[in-house]
Amino acid sequence: MTATTTDTPLALSRPSGVRTLKNALATVFVALATVLTIIPLAWVLATVIIKGYRLLLTPTWWLQSQRGITPRREGGGAYHAIVGTVEMALICAAIAVPLGVMGAILLIEYGRGTKIARGVSFMVDILSGIPSIVAALFIYALFITIFGLGRSAIAVSCALVLLMLPVVLRSTEEMLKLVPDSLREASYSLGVPKWKTIVKVVIPTAFGGIVTGVMLGVARVMGETAPLLILVS
Amino acid sequence: MTDTDATEKVQQEHTAADDPSLSPVVDHTEAHLHSPVPTVLHHEHHEPAPAPTPARPAERAPRGVKLAKISRTGDRVFRSLATTSGLAIVLLVLFVGFFLLALALPSLRADQDNFLTSRTWTVAGNELRFGIAGLFWTTVLSSILAMAMAVPVALGVALCLTQYLHKRVSGPVSFVVDLLAAVPSIIFGLWGLTVLGPFLAPAAAWLISTIGWIPLFSKSVDPKGSVFVASVVLAIMILPIVIAISRDVFTQTPRDHIEAALALGATRWEVIRTAVLPHGRSGVVSASMLGLGRALGETIAVMIILTTPPQGAPFTPSIFAGGETFASKIANNAAEFDSPSKTGAYIAAGLVLFVVTFAVNAIARIVAERGAKS
Asked: So what's the ipTM on this one?
């Protein structure tokens, strides 16, 4: 047996027809899948741009609100929507960013591998899976049913915090992980306390990445619709 | 199994006792080559070399030597700040479950129908009659359909990005796929209703005429705002997350495994089947579950697309019928939250959605962790 196989090395070196075919089929499938994924994006973008670009070029779109505009009357703009979106995103970010960054610092700098870190990490996973409508219902239950406050933009911002927090925390965590330990050790060896090391060395090093995470979170909450349906009337 | 467990334990002790710079990879392969007994030997023989005992006194030395007095107040404050925000996050999630349950309970008690099996939803009058069977069916059907469509495509894209394309090409393609994740769901909803729905209508008609005898594909009144269209849009929406996670897992396939397969004469597909897919299996399962969780909770796109069947319409299992998911039901009726009992009924639906997504995400995490361990 062994002698015969060593005699025919050239015949073995090429894959058989079936194997080549399977390989080709896999290549085709993979290419098709990629094209299939890019089509919807291009399609959505094209639809939105072709149907909407004309209005964006007019100044009224940017500078007028829908005040006094009835369904029968044409005109008006998105001024109020732009202001409202930015306002709510800013309030939301003001709460979610400190909480998210401090949570990430707890996970990476203070509690690596401890029980607290594992619990927090698990809860962040759950939080990132919470549907926006459930977050909205929770804030509705807390603010409106229990505290007796009215439906308001601030309630929406609080609901959006639940959605933005995990995005900010996870991306900050990834960035803090990338900061080399040698930087921290260099700082400690100069007698710098841990908190100052974090504030002056670790966070500046990871700053770019943290900003990216914050922008991702802001992008997510800006496009969120469900909490507004429930929490503003 | 016991073999790997043993080596793992040994390895953990190793990394814990020795200094962390000691490469665990080398240990692992060596330990694997030997049977359990030589592993222990190898362990003993290796231990004296890095000398773990002197490391600790060296660490503690500055305490004995009186250096400058450093105030650690800032440290304590900062540490407690971090811990507080961590605990706040934990509390937040617990509160979500707690408050939803607290507000849903009175309505659940007053419910005249069976909450789990009834399909009626009458919450307007004094008598509460509501159940989640219909909502549950539509939610799960649309999400599972979306996952079934999205996962094979996502796998193909992730493989294409990591195994087929050159880095210079795969970078921009990855970027485009990530862009897909940034499109707000309301835009997908409007697009699905006005563009994709009419486009898919012929395909739906063809499916009905060919395999309409299966109840799942039976003919229905309004094929436009159907579960079918909704799940195609959901599939597009969950694609980016499944692709992103699978891509990350596939790039972590050990280079050695791929090269070993190539050296044995494997074709590119065989490399994928024997090295890349087995390595990434748990990651892909976890990614699919995360995608499923997303699809289950998606609100606006589904709400815009699905036509709400009239109250009391007969139940149909067809994917070409309209329907309401948990999320779309709540969002559709958000303006009517006026009495506590009515609100409680919707919050009960939200609670079920929370529990389902919680379970799906927890499974995803457990699968991912198990995969990371083995």
From this structure: 0.82
